[in-house]
Amino acid sequence: IPFNIIDTALSSLKNSHSFIDSGMDIATKTALDLVESFNDEEDVNSMEKVMLEFAAMDRDLNNYIRAFEETVNQVKREKTEIIPDLEKLVQEKLTAIESKNSDSDLKSNEKYMYFMDQLQEMKKQFRHVSDDDNETIEQIDEDIAVTRSQMNFICPITQMEMRRPVRNKVCGHTYEEEAIVEIIQSRKQKKKKVRCPKMGCSHDDVKRSDLVPDEALKRVIDSQNK
Hints:
Elements: H1 3-15, H2 17-36, H3 41-78, H4 86-98, H5 103-107, H6 110-134, H7 139-151, E1 165-168, E2 174-176, H8 177-189, E3 211-213, H9 215-225
Antiparallel strand pairs: 1-2, 1-3
Domain SP-RING-type: 140-226
Main location: nucleus
Family: Belongs to the NSE2 family.
């Protein structure tokens, strides 16, 4: 069996993930745009359905790749002289894998979880902005509200307003991307862990892989600055 051809085909198949990822990124940005523009809730919720469809595509692709790889590895191990029916073997393996599928698989997709998290933050932040616009409050209360809001914009490392905020998936705190990455790289060279720089946080092992862009917070900061 020309396994090099099979490996090339598998490699091309894995590259399809990039198209799914791009679609999910676009859907996330579109949903945040809708919230920022105070669009209908129904329009915003429709983007969640799109994300679940992408998550299903991602799961199906992963299942097929897994079934194909396991089948090929099995054939390689057995070194049989008779060429097996690969298509049939893959389909049998795929059926077994898909029998364990559940709806929870889709909602545990990393990009879907990021989408829901950012959407929730965006709704919360822009609901506050809308409330502030529509309500008349005394100047002293307004100053306090603005000060509290701006506190969330300040990086605990640089003590300056964040331009590219990233959030730690583990503890939920946000930092300026460049600042936290620089600390992680510096400590990594010394083979030391990084404690979350947010005062009072007990998380003592901040990893670069735990950081995700906080698009919702960035949009609120940009909106306030306008």
